[in-house]
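Hi all, long-time lurker, first post. I run a small reading group and we've been trying to get comfortable going from sequence to structure in the token notation. Rather than ask abstract questions, I figured I'd post a concrete chain and ask someone more experienced to write out its structure so we can walk through it together at our next meeting. Sequence below, copied exactly:
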Amino acid sequence: MRPAFPKLHAVTDERIARRPDVEQISAALARGAPDLALHARGHTLTGLEHHRLAVRLRPSPSASVRLFVNDRLDVALAVGADGVHLAADSLGVADARRLGPSWLVGRSVHAVADARAARAAGADYLLAGPVFATPTHPDAIPLGLAGLEAIVAVGLPVIAIGGVTVERIPALRAAGAWGAAAIRALWDAGDPAAAARAMEDALQR
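-- Answer (accepted) --
Happy to help. Here is the structure in token form:
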């Protein structure tokens, strides 16, 4: 894993993708946490909507923020993304590597077997969750900290997602997580810059 791989990941969903202030919020998040990954994600977005979202999130060339595109490899190519993130049922890691040899490639996992398969396929990192109950996936059974620890033991950097708050970050770090990803805790914060700063600070401890 590259040393500069971000610890804090701000992930969008369809609701956030269609917000008129998404550019302003992403800029505020970047001010609060310069070492940030922004994920253009939205399962039901059209290709054009996904592309527009990625363009709106794309940081300036001088920024340290990384742009990831979830699942849409065509969009990632079109916008010059830094990486792609693949859902469990997406194309394989090797397919992504052929399209973007320089990309950081991650895979969503929900069990140790998924993590082992992703590592064998050559993924750079794992997104594990949901660790805690979350309204984003209300029917999913949370991994809990023990489940997160088991995935961490597979040996790749793990980004924890699902019910992540700044108060829970110390427990996630204690379980071995490299970093954390959030949706509502960042995008819906009253002060996005302060929320991102607090999370990034907690992840550095």
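A couple of things your group might point at:
The chain has a mean pLDDT of 94.
The first strand starts at residue 8 and ends at 11.
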